[in-house]
Amino acid sequence: MSGLPPLPALRAFEAAARHLSFKRAAEELAVTPTAISHQIRLLEEVLGVRLFDRRPRQVSLSPAGVTLFPPINGAFAAMREAVGRITENKRRRGLTLSATTAFTAKWLVPRLARFAEVHPDIDLRLHASDEIVNFGAGGADVAVRYGPGPFPDLSSEPLFEEHFAPMCSPQLGVRSPEDLKRQTLLHSEWRKVDSLTPSWARWCEEAGLEGPDTTIGPVFLDDSHLIQATVASQGVALLSPILVSEELSAGYLVQPFGPELPGYAYHLVHPPSSDSAVEIEALKNWMKNALNR
């Protein structure tokens, strides 16, 4: 004989040998006991051996059946396990979210465990990049973008309006705008500069403060590095209270005074038609709830 016996016959044998009952095997496989008996006789004919000792109302494995059962049982157990893993993976849904490195590090990562608690069936993957993700290339399912909008050919949902305020380490002892004249001003470099770009020149104009030289001081390309430098008492920076909420709560940073500068909104954007529409809706609702706390 070349190859394997028919799979239905092997399946019937495995179930009958495991239960030592043609009736219980039939119930498991949703067939009749006669069908089980037929498949086993077919297998015995193919193999040329007797697999069961048949007695009234009772069956037992023959020596050949005892030899055959363990590997057949192991093979079907392995198949059931593999099918179970695939089914479980199918129930778990994956979602890739793209956001800037600062938003990912300062807002998303600290809250990732909370999202997993609310949505244990969604595997959220974070794609941190300051480059605009290409949805068509499969780089992400959904993204957080900052700006005025609109976003052509994308569905968008505003999450929150950004604003910026002077922040510093409490060790600097900054208490009033006049203290800025004796402090190092830290700057963030923005790719696009317009009327809502936060800058010390704009803040001083809004505050009616004259005197600080807003053209000097370290410039940071990465907001995460700017936040680190501010925590390390290297100067005063215009930061987002939302992105540094953890540092404010822990007392590593303080917001000694205003005014706050308004910025644009953060939006959750994605292609209009998406296979992950349910997951995106769940993410959007979770983010809005988290931002309102």
TrEMBL record:
Gene3D superfamilies in the cross-refs: Periplasmic binding protein-like II, Winged helix-like DNA-binding domain superfamily/Winged helix DNA-binding domain
Alphabetic keyword roster: DNA-binding, Transcription, Transcription regulation
UniProt record, GO biological process: DNA-templated transcription
Coiled coil: none
InterPro entries found in the cross-reference section: LysR-type_TF_proteobact-type, LysR_HTH_N, LysR_subst-bd, WH-like_DNA-bd_sf, WH_DNA-bd_sf
PROSITE patterns: HTH_LYSR
Chain segments annotated as transmembrane: none
GO MF annotations, alphabetized: DNA-binding transcription factor activity; sequence-specific DNA binding
Domain HTH lysR-type intervals: 5-62
NCBIfam families given in the database record: PRK11139.1
Similarity remark: Belongs to the LysR transcriptional regulatory family.
Protein name: Glycine cleavage system transcriptional activator
